[in-house]
Amino acid sequence: MNVTHLYCSSCEKTYEPNRLYNLCECGKPLMVAYDLAAAGETLNPASLAGREPTLWRYREVLPIVDDTNKVSLGEGMTPLLKTDRLGRKLGLQSLYIKDESLNPTGSFKARGMTTAVSMAKELGVKKLAVPSAGNAAGALAAYAARAGLEAFIFMPADTPRANIIECRQTGASVTLVDGLITDCGKIVAERKAAEGWFDVSTLKEPYRVEGKKTMGYELAEQLGWELPDVILYPTGGGTGLIGMWKAFDEMEQMGWISSARPRFVTVQAEGCAPIVRAFAAGAGAGADIPDAHTLASGLRVPKAIGDFIMLDILKKSGGAAVAVTDEDLIKAVKEIGSAEGIFAAPEGAACLPALRKLIADGFVAPDDRVVIFNTGTGVKYLDLFE
User: Fold this and answer.
1) Residue 133 in contact with residue 181, Cβ under 8 Å?
2) In Å, how far from its chain's centre is CA 89?
3) What is the CATH number of the domain that holds 90?
4) Cβ(147)–Cβ(200) under 8 Å?
């Protein structure tokens, strides 16, 4: 509606809007730019009262032109829960969990797929393909079915069984691969031209991040337009973190919030921590992790195409990057569930032991307002708790 152009996140080359794109010519992710003055004529904090309780309430800063192309299952506006019992255990006065498990298909991936599939439909795509560690696959399968499009999904063979069943039961073509998500991505890249697939891999098309950014809009709205001091985000491909940073910039330009930003914390598993290693080394990009392993399948991303963006955000926000053990993140699922009744995915639960480390290091103070993102439901990982 208000898109002016697309731009490269690295070389800043610009592209015409309302076209089908994957990456920039330089091989880096593309981002969407808006006429925020025009958007602000109808979108402002006061105008949100009475709007639909989905992420499409921020319609003016989302990319489709024709609303008839919107492919929705009611995603977004997930709860922001003040977790006092858990906070007291940690010595924190203001701890919150943003619970993304209440999205359609049980994870935050629904946010990205509603916008990606809507744009694919608008631009005439018939076949969509994605490599996935699990939840993105389930979301693509569901939204493609909703749109009447074909979905071709490639997942590691050890992906949680629930994700595989979910994709097959929502009509997708599923291929299991002996390898990592990067190996799945290579198959999509090699075959997409011949098969007529449009690749909706993380950050390899410009519109998934637009859906993910609405977590930032919602967080600001739910906190009365005052951002928290610290955000802990479990990071695989990183679109959620990148999207929220983009949302905060847009809101500042529209005059909704100040220039102050939360300190972003990337949380990864010790067996696959490319961003944590790169941040500690002061590097501008994450190293590939060829032997990546973790029970939290969504964190098993050995090389993220947007790693340089994430590292820049961590640096600019005065943030941090923390790795935790599989043992600790699995224990944290029960601790969160027992304290607050939230059955978190292992990825989201990983933020709890990471937070303990940050408190011990003095990075998080008792009076900081802290938000943990639980990115999905633990129900998808029942095999880990048997």
Assistant:
1) yes
2) 28
3) 3.40.50.1100
4) no
C-alpha span between 15 and 202 (Å, rounded): 19
Can you read off the two tokens belonging to residue 118? Answer: 């809507």
Report the C-alpha gap between 381 and 161 in whole angstroms: 8
Does 377 reside within a domain?
A: yes
How far is the CA of 117 from the CAs of 124, 235, 244, 278, 294, in angstroms? 10, 23, 20, 33, 29
- How many angstroms separate the CA atoms of 136 and 200, rounded? 10
Secondary structure class of 215 (helix, strand, coil): helix
User: 5 — phi, psi (to 5°)?
Assistant: -170, 175
Query: How long, in residues, is the chain?
Result: 386
In a domain, 291, yes or no: yes
Instruction: Please calculate the CA angle 335-372-142 and round it to the nearest 5 degrees.
Output: 95
Please, what is the average pLDDT of the chain? Answer: 96
Give the integer Cα–Cα distance in Å for 116 and 168: 20
Q: How many domains does the chain have?
A: 1
Full domain range(s) for residue 225: 80-107+208-384
In a domain? residue 87: yes
**How many angstroms separate the most distant Cα atoms in the chain?**
57
What is the band of 291 on the pLDDT scale with cuts at 50, 70, 90? confident
Task: Please tell me what DSSP assigns to residue 80.
Answer: E
Chain segment 5-59, per-residue pLDDT in tens:
999 999 999 999 999 999 999 999 999 999 999 999 999 999 999 999 999 999 9
What is d(CA 384, CA 184) in angstroms, rounded to the nearest whole number?
A: 23
In a domain, 203, yes or no: no
